[in-house]
Specification:
Elements (H helix, E strand, L loop, with lengths): L11 E3 L4 E6 L10 H9 L3 E5 L16 H16 L4 E7 L1 H10 L6 E5 L14 H4 L5 E3 L8 H6 L5 E3 H17 L7 E6 L8 H9 L5 E6 L12 H15 L4
Helix pairs in contact: 2-3, 3-6
């Protein structure tokens, strides 16, 4: 029998110190898109765990059966796993992983949260409101051309080749739930975006900033990377900024 998980899409655990960071990949993606960040954190004394979200990294037909609560449960599992090795836990997510990270930040005992290339809402398209119904007729939506600048990294990227329409409806529901709980967040937030991201305009960072007013909110913007900011040309700057954020808000470091 062949492995169910796509080779290279496995979760990873990188032990280091007693401060840890749970890494959450994006929609249709895999833990691999967070691995370089995990390596950087481990090399600097931070334990890193890259979780694999339910329905991801296996077969694209697995994903439409999942609901946003299944993805959040994967994050909770990851938190409890890394908490067994660490006294303080941060969370960092990319795209939908950022949405999940912000939702988790509203109720889990985390030290801080990092949301990267995280949408505040999906692009305005009347069909999105009917994604659940449309999925019966159109189960998958083709992906457009990627916006990555680092072509070598693009060749190594692992994700599903299309978007499951039913799963898009779950992202909409997840966003609604997350926006409704932003006021409950009390931990520091770092939000990282790129001006070259064709999926999440920089205005989304401003929308989050307005709704997190009064919180410890740190915005950071890069200029050259596409949506998968953790694998693109500005990644080293992003990694250093994330590490600085973790070190700043870790107790006793």
């Amino acid at each position: 029998m062949n492995p169910i998980t796509i080779p290279g899409a496995e979760p990873f655990f990188l032990p280091a110190g007693k401060v840890g960071c749970l890494l959450v990949h994006g929609f249709t993606g895999t833990p691999k898109e967070m691995r370089l960040m995990g390596d950087h954190l481990q090399q600097n004394g931070i334990t890193a765990y890259g979780v694999r979200l339910a329905g991801h990294g296996t077969d694209i037909n697995d994903m439409p059966r999942m609901r946003w609560r299944d993805w959040l449960a994967s994050v909770e599992d990851g938190f409890h796993t890394i908490q067994g090795s660490c006294d303080q836990v941060f969370i960092a997510g990319l795209s939908m992983g950022g949405i999940l990270s912000l939702l988790a930040a509203s109720y889990l005992p985390l030290r801080g949260a990092i949301a990267m290339a995280t949408p505040y809402e999906l692009n305005i398209d009347w069909r999105i409101r009917f994604a659940k119904q449309l999925s019966v007729l159109v189960p998958f939506v083709a992906k457009g051309k990627d916006d990555v600048s680092d072509q070598e990294m693009a060749k190594q990227h692992i994700d599903y080749p299309a978007y499951p329409t039913r799963s898009i409806a779950e992202v909409v529901a997840l966003l609604e739930q997350t926006r409704a709980t932003l006021a409950q967040i009390s931990i520091p937030i770092l939000m990282v975006n790129s001006r070259a991201d064709s999926t999440v305009p920089e205005q989304h960072q401003e929308q989050y900033a307005r709704h997190l007013a009064g919180k410890t909110f740190r915005p950071f913007m890069v200029d050259r990377s596409g949506h998968v900011i953790t694998e693109d040309v500005d990644r080293e700057r992003v990694f250093r900024h994330v590490l600085d954020f973790i070190n700043e808000f870790s107790q006793g470091k």
